Amino acid sequence: MKKFLVAAATAAVLGVSLEAKDVAHALLVQADSFRGGFDSAVIRVKLTNYEAARLSEEAEFEVSVKGENSLVKFLSVRSKGQSLLMRGDDMWFFLPA
Predict the structure, then answer these.
(1) How many of the other CB atoms lie within 10 Å of CB of 29?
(2) Measured at the alpha carbon of residue 82, what is the angle toward residues 80 and 88, in degrees to the nearest 5?
């Protein structure tokens, strides 16, 4: 992001406008840096859904990521035991009987 700010400041001083695609690219690089800074990670996620300012649904997950592989464990009572495994472009969903 610092590189982008320096480029934007330099462009402003020189009177050169940055193209929208350059700005979009810089924003995507910054967003990706937050996700891709680690070789692996385990994250606990809680999703809360509201309808008309009222709580309608909550779900909790444990997401384990290593490279292009990830495992999502469903932790909420309603879907406990379900898992989603992703390896590259392949995906499997486990529904316990």
Answers:
(1) 12
(2) 145
